[in-house]
Structures are given as C-alpha cells and as structure tokens.
C-alpha cells in the first residue's frame, strides 16, 4: 500500500472511531440520576469490566450505576478454590472499581449450593464431612472473605437460594450435613452464616437472596418465615433480595406486589438483586444455571422490533410497580451490564450488544418520569 493510501485509511479509521456512538448512550440521561430519589440502581459487572478489558461495559456502569454486585468473582469456587488457597485478585479489582466510582459495593454470595467446590463437603478421604467440620469450614470462609472487605462492602448476600419452590428448605449439602434439628434450630446453617457474617463486619448489611419469590407465593412465604424466625430470635437480617429473572410474560403485577409488600411487612428492606427479562419464549424459566443450555439461550428473534417492544412493555410494567413501592425498595440491580455478556443470552437488558440504550431503556426512564 502507498504511503498516501495508508494515511487515508488511517484518517478514515480515526473519523469512524470519532463518530462511533459511545457505549451507554452519549445524550441519554444517567439511570442513577433518573432514580436518585427512588432507589439505588446498579448492574453486575464481571471480571472483564472491572479490569478494563471491556471498556464498552465499563462506560455503561460508570455512567448509569451507583451500585455494583460481582456477577461471579466473590463466589466460593472462584475466591476460595482450594482449602488453603484464596484467589483475592479479581475480587480486589471489583471492590476497587466500585470504590473508585463511589458506588455501593455488594458482595454475592457467601453460602450457596452452586459454584461451591466439592472439597467443601468432603473430608480428607473423600467421604462426607461431619457437621462440625463443615460449620468450621463455613466460619473460616466467611470470616476470611467478609473480614477482608470489612467496611468496604456495604451488604452481603449471605445465603443464596436455600429454598425450594414450595417454600421448604432445599435439600442442599448445607442443610443435609448441618441438619435442621428442632423447630428452634430450623434454619441452623442459615443462622450460623448470618452470625459469622455479622461478627466479621458488624456494619455490613446482611441479606437472604432467592429467585421466583415474585412468581411463587409459597416460596416467598418461605423467605418470610426465615425473616420472622430471625426477628423472633433477635438475629440480624437486613433485607431480602428478590432476584427477578423475569420473562416477557412474567412476573405478574400481582406476584411482584405480593413479594414486595409482604416482605416489607415482615420488617426487612426489599431489593431487586438480579433483574433481567429473558426474551426467549421457550425453555426453562428459572434461574438455575444447571438447567440453562445453549438450546434455550439462543434467540433468533431477540433483535426483532416486536420482541423489543414486548421487552420495553414488560420493563415499563415492572418499573411502575417498583416505583409505586419505592418506600420499601432500597436497590434495583440488573444481572449483567449489556446484552453481549448476559448469562441468559437473547436480549434481556437495557443496553444492546453494542452497549447502546434500547427501547426498554427509554421505557424505564419514562416510567420514572411519570411518577
Ligand atoms: O450469571 C452467573 C453466570 O455467569 C454463572 O455461570 C452462574 C453460575 O452458577 O451464575 C450466574 O448467576 C446466578 C447468580 O449467581 C445467582 N442467581 C442466579 C444467577 C443466574 O444463574
């Protein structure tokens, strides 16, 4: 190529880059300003965002959000992969990113049945660990992780997804090995986790977090039973996270209102912790990753105008409910940042695969302005 041609190509590239729309939308209002009188608004960046490898996503987070939750890097498997090894670096980057941007930083999550290495539940010979040894392991983990970020992480999802759809405790290794005991000890492993989280950072808020609380009244009642049990024993629990992995036809207004009002009436803060709306009409609807396959994350119709309209309408409906109950809601966090990196595929968030605000973004802003 001649020197002149190289110069021309380079100038065109510079012009193109200059003209490329900035991720997050240059001229649109920042969500954190739109919702500043209502609740915190956030997203769940992953490692590529907080380490600067995904500048598109970072631009969205910095412009629009005042709270962040780590999508994966604080989970047991990632932060504590082997008994004697903690992997602090990614979590440190996440917390530092939040602090640099003056955001409320949320820790997700301490005790969960998924993304927990097998060794946690095994003794040295590979058999099932005893109750006491598992409790000791849980305590060490919580003291180390919560202790490291004491005063820097505002609140923790202490226990995640401990309930089945009917509101009873899920038969996870935590429950099976630690046991339930008498009525007073009914939530033994949950209680222990909250006690140690409180001991490690007395100022941190402590949350129970689960999915389908807005679609299953029985499951929501199960979460309320945990809150009431804690309150009756004088144990600290600050909030319940309604994950809200929704779809184009769920949750219903009634289901979401039931969850918000009944949890608030039990005396805890309510937060929406993992908001997205799957655009795929078929396949499994819940938030259990083990049941989500490529076949149901692909969505050829995701970008279609009709899909985007339905998505915008559903977001508008959900936000009109959240805004109507804003006195009980402290935070709304989207699960991810933009469609390109969403765990569920399709087009579930407010920003498209290029980081541009979608019709759903404007629908949410309009819902706030109509309040
Ligand atoms: O979005 C997360 C995905 O990247 C992980 O592979 C998955 C592993 O379990 O977890 C996803 O996040 C889940 C969250 O931690 C808890 N609620 C359900 C979320 C979606 O599965």
TrEMBL record:
Pfam families, alphabetized: Glyco_hydro_10
Positions of the GH10 domain: 25-367
GO molecular function: hydrolase activity, hydrolyzing O-glycosyl compounds
GO biological process terms on file: xylan catabolic process
InterPro entries, alphabetized: GH (IPR017853), GH10 (IPR044846), GH10_AS (IPR031158), GH10_dom (IPR001000)
Keyword Hydrolase appears in the UniProt entry: yes
Keyword terms, alphabetized: Carbohydrate metabolism, Glycosidase, Hydrolase, Polysaccharide degradation, Xylan degradation
PROSITE patterns documented for this protein: GH10_1, GH10_2
PANTHER family for the chain: ENDO-1,4-BETA-XYLANASE A, GLYCOSYL HYDROLASE
Protein name listed in UniProt: 1,4-beta-xylanase
């Amino acid at each position: 190529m001649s020197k002149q041609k190289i110069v021309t190509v380079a100038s065109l590239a510079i012009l193109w880059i200059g003209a490329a729309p900035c991720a997050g939308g240059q001229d649109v209002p920042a969500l954190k300003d739109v919702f500043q009188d209502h609740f915190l608004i956030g997203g769940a960046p992953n490692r590529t965002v907080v380490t600067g490898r995904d500048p598109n996503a970072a631009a969205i987070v910095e412009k629009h959000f005042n709270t962040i939750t780590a999508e994966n890097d604080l989970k047991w498997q990632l932060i504590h992969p082997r008994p004697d090894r903690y992997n602090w670096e990614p979590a440190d980057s996440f917390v530092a990113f939040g602090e640099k941007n003056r955001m409320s930083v949320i820790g997700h999550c301490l005790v969960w049945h998924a993304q927990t290495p097998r060794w946690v539940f095994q003794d040295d010979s590979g058999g099932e660990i005893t109750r006491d040894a598992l409790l000791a392991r849980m305590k060490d983990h919580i003291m180390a992780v919560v202790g490291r970020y004491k005063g820097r992480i505002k609140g923790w999802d202490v226990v995640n997804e401990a309930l089945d759809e009917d509101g009873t405790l899920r038969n996870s290794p935590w429950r099976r090995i630690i046991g339930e005991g008498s009525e007073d000890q009914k939530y033994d492993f949950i209680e222990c986790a909250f006690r140690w989280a409180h001991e490690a950072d007395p100022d941190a808020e402590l949350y129970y977090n689960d999915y389908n609380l807005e679609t299953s009244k029985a499951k929501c009642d199960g979460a309320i039973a945990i809150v009431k049990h804690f309150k009756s024993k004088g144990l600290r629990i600050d909030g319940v996270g309604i994950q809200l992995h929704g779809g184009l036809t769920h949750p219903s207004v009634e289901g979401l209102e039931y969850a918000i009002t009944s949890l608030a009436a039990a005396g805890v803060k309510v937060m929406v912790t993992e908001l997205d709306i799957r655009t795929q009409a078929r396949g499994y609807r819940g938030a259990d990753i083990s049941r989500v396959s490529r076949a149901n994350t692909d969505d050829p119709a995701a970008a279609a105008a009709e899909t985007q309209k339905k998505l915008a309408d559903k977001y508008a409906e959900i936000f009109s409910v959240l805004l109507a109950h804003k006195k009980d809601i402290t935070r709304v966090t989207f699960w991810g940042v933009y469609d390109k990196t969403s765990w569920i595929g399709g087009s579930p968030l407010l920003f498209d695969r290029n980081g541009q605000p979608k019709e759903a973004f404007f629908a949410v802003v309009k819902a706030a302005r109509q309040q």
